[in-house]
Recover the amino acids of this structure.
């Protein structure tokens, strides 16, 4: 989903999907009266700029026919090419590998399970089909989408605590394909399942496994099948090189451990309703609430955050995160300056043509030292 931006000829990066009608009409004025041009964000890296305009009814319209977008661009083709789309009507749509309405009780737990085993209506996945997200990928996309909405509104980086209400608010506009209400409105009592995204307080593994989440007013615990919790804890340890229990005991890490997934309402043999967490993802966020895929990424995102704060660049510099192109880390943009594309690996020739709208900075690890160099490139421009 990273190519849903537009870039203006004054180097500003914008995201029409997060702009309301007034903002779009202001953009129309800029284009028509101030003579600024607007290009699809995917074409910033190529020599053929794909120009767009804003119509009088505030739609984003292409200025030519037969555009060749980057294959990852949201505007590329009739065929869906991303698993998560921020649409230009302000909503977002996620396409998942699994059916969130249901879950399968793990085999290991079935002997002690008194419930009917439900089948997981898995969709057929072949390589030709458009991409679909796992739970973890969906949460990463959702997290990045929330951040993009904030950056677009000029709000930028905030603390992890404040990121949470921003994400909850974004969920009012996020739909899972095949479900006709936004994720925020999924109701445990009416729909028998609901989505959660909260800080993880504790886990209890054993005969009666449960997870405890930090709620708005007080903490709450949910029953979970032991094997689901065990599997997720193993994945966490593999990703971050620390166990969930150790991380929960670590003062520096514990406020940044999040749990997200789906809770289901089920009927027990005794005909009583109970809640169970059937799909769980445990992950770390950085100090701004941004999803981290590993510890290195967490250090790097924190370094960007410190860089912006220590240099008082809140108002002038924006950080745009890129998550689905492994060679790229993100973009730092400053109005009226050429943007800096932070690359983890050098880009193939032609991909980053000299003289285009950005300066690329290649580093395999982002640290305070090379951010000082990046600052020179960004702010020191004539
Ligand atoms: Zn494009």
């Amino acid at each position: 989903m990273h190519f849903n931006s537009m870039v203006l000829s004054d180097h500003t990066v914008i995201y029409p999907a997060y702009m309301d009608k007034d903002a779009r009409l202001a953009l129309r004025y800029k284009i028509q009266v101030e003579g600024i041009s607007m290009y699809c964000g995917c074409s910033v890296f190529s020599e053929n700029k794909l120009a767009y305009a804003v119509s009088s009814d505030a739609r984003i319209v292409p200025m030519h026919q037969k555009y060749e977008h980057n294959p990852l661009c949201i505007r590329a083709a009739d065929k869906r090419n991303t698993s998560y789309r921020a649409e230009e009507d302000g909503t977002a749509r996620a396409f998942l590998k699994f059916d969130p309405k249901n879950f399968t009780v793990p085999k290991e737990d079935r002997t002690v399970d008194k419930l009917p085993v439900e089948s997981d209506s898995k969709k057929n996945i072949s390589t030709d089909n458009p991409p679909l997200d796992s739970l973890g990928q969906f949460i990463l996309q959702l997290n990045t989408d929330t951040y993009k909405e904030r950056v677009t509104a000029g709000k930028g980086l905030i603390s992890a605590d404040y990121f949470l209400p921003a994400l909850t608010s974004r969920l009012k506009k996020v739909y899972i394909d095949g479900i006709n209400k936004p994720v925020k409105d999924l109701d445990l009592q009416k729909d028998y399942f609901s989505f959660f995204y909260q800080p993880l307080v504790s886990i209890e593994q054993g005969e009666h496994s449960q997870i405890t989440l930090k709620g708005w007013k007080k903490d709450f615990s949910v029953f979970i099948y032991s094997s689901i919790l065990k599997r997720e804890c193993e994945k966490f340890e593999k990703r971050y090189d620390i166990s969930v229990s150790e991380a929960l005991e670590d003062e520096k890490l514990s406020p940044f451990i999040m749990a997200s997934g789906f809770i289901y309402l089920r009927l027990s043999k005794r005909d009583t309703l109970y809640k169970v967490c059937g799909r769980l993802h445990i992950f770390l966020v950085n100090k701004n609430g941004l999803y981290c895929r590993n510890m290195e990424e967490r250090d790097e995102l924190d370094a960007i955050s410190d860089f912006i704060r220590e240099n008082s660049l809140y108002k002038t510099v924006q950080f745009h995160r890129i998550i689905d192109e492994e060679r790229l880390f993100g973009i730092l943009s400053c109005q009226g300056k050429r943007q800096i594309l932070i690359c983890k690996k050098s880009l193939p020739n032609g991909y980053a043509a000299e003289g285009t709208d950005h300066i690329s900075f290649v580093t395999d690890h982002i640290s305070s030292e090379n951010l000082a160099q990046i600052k020179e490139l960004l702010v020191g421009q004539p």
Observations:
- The helical segments are 21-33, 135-152, 160-170, 188-191, 226-240, 244-249, 295-310, 368-379.
